[in-house]
Design a protein that fits this description.
446 residues, alpha/beta, FAD/NAD(P)-binding domain, Fumarate Reductase Iron-sulfur Protein, Chain B, domain 2, 3 domains, 17 helices, 19 strands, 35% helix, 19% strand
Length: 446
């Protein structure tokens, strides 16, 4: 994305560097030790622990909170990392308000849950600051596993395999490891280059080599990997972006939100990043919220999210919707893009009101226009680059309960695989569980 003379509304340096630094500060300030003890003291340490049941990685939440209370946050972090090696990032980006904290008994009784996410960050940050790794490798097995994709699923899989004594080579088509943690999350959720620091810390287990700039269609072929390695795990994510399917979509100023977020995350100087004066984001998920909020924080005067269904159907949590509203983002529901207008570059977007009739979403015929010099598409991503030998299901790689694909010796997890929700914590769980099954399979083979 750049300053384009055909799109004069898209400009850089709308705000000063000092204002941008404030705007993109850490969304949730970390707890200090006293605050952590006060927050931990609210936990009932439930025997049946509904919070743990709600966690996709099944972290023993009552145990780690008790360990914080007893003044051993490093032990608490070890409890977290036993189940979720990317617990530091998940503490920052997990929709805890819809997972563990929603299940918290305090939430049901008082409408104010134990701050599990912030307590998890407190513990994991303390241990990671020691710059030591809490796990040691088992004796080498002599087996080698290829992991394609250095996102949450791939990294979790690689770490668990390395811990079991296997040698792991992780390939990623980008120039840096981390996947969506590095490229796809709002900058105010992961500050101080945390994603890269977490990858470096994770590699402290040993036995993992990362090769960037390599992926399917860019130097890798599944058949060659199968011939060279004892097993293959795919965590390739979803690289494609759905189209608006509206006339004028190809005009200058119409971009995909994923690329915008990635560019922002990698920008060394946010004041050099151009943004429109009137921005419209099409979509209702986390990507739409992140693109809209960050547009506003960069200095856009008017930012609107347009979602085709009702607010209750939005993929973004209520917390995220409220966050967007608090930053001045307008959310329009039951509207869909009809056409993009402008002479070569977008100047307006035409939206049509929608209604569900007999269970089907339909346009009502009533339309209106919004000024727009920048339109972001955030209407879902699609699988690209998956080897043709793999069976697909619902547009993703079909996997069974053990994350095995239709091709023997090949596992998959994360956003590219069928089944779970497209969440960082779910990807971690799938990568970890696939690693356990890969290990069992390789050891059973003798």
């Amino acid at each position: 994305m750049s300053n384009n003379p055909t799109t004069p509304g898209i400009q850089s340096a709308r705000l000063s560097g000092a204002v941008l630094e404030t705007n993109f500060a850490d969304l949730h300030a970390p707890l200090d030790t006293h605050e952590a003890h006060v927050a931990a003291d609210r936990c009932y340490f439930c025997h049946d622990a509904p919070c743990q049941v709600a966690c996709p990685t099944a972290i023993d939440i009552p145990l780690f909170i008790r360990q914080i209370m007893t003044g051993t946050p490093e032990a608490a972090a070890k409890t977290i990392f036993d189940q979720n090696i990317l617990g530091g990032m998940c503490a920052r980006v997990c929709p805890t308000e819809e997972l563990c904290e929603e299940a918290c008994v305090r939430e049901a009784a008082e409408g104010r849950p134990v701050e599990i996410g912030r307590l998890q960050r407190y513990a994991t940050d303390r241990l990671m600051a020691r710059n030591s790794h809490p796990f040691t490798r088992a004796e080498p097995t002599g087996r080698r596993v290829a992991v394609v994709g250095a996102g949450p699923a791939g990294l979790a899989c690689a770490h668990r395999l390395a811990m079991k004594g296997h040698e792991v080579v992780v390939y990623d088509h980008r120039a840096k490891a981390g996947g969506l943690n590095e490229f796809g999350i709002a900058a105010y959720k992961s500050t101080d280059d945390f994603a890269a620091r977490e990858v470096s810390w994770l590699l402290g287990i040993g036995g993992i080599t990362i090769e960037t700039g390599k992926g399917f269609g860019a130097g890798l072929a599944l058949e060659a990997l199968q011939a060279e390695f004892d097993a293959v795990f795919l965590g390739i994510g979803l690289a494609g972006v759905n189209a608006l399917r509206a006339p004028g979509e190809g005009k200058a100023g119409v971009e995909d939100a994923v690329s915008f977020i990635a560019e922002l995350r990698q920008a060394e100087d946010l004041s050099a990043l151009p943004v429109g004066r009137n921005v419209v984001v099409i979509g209702g998920g986390m990507t739409a919220i992140d693109a809209a909020v960050q547009s506003k924080l960069l200095g856009a005067e008017s930012v609107t999210i347009a979602y085709r269904r009702g607010a209750e159907r939005m993929g973004a949590s209520q917390f995220e919707q409220d966050l967007a509203a608090s930053r001045g983002v307008r959310i329009l529901t039951n509207v869909m893009p009809k056409a993009v207008h402008g002479n070569g570059a977008v100047a307006e977007i035409e939206l049509e009101y929608t209604a569900e009739i007999d269970g089907r979403l339909q346009g009502t015929g009533e339309t209106f226009r919004l000024p727009a010099d920048q339109v972001f598409k955030a209407i879902g991503q699609t699988l690209e680059g998956a080897p043709g030998a793999l069976e697909l299901q619902g547009g993703k790689i079909r996997v069974d309960a053990a994350q095995r694909t239709s091709v023997a010796g090949v596992w998959a997890g994360g956003d590219c695989a069928s089944g779970g929700e497209d969440l960082t914590v779910t990807a971690v769980a799938e990568g970890r569980d696939a690693a356990e099954d890969i290990h069992a399979t390789l050891m059973a083979a003798g």
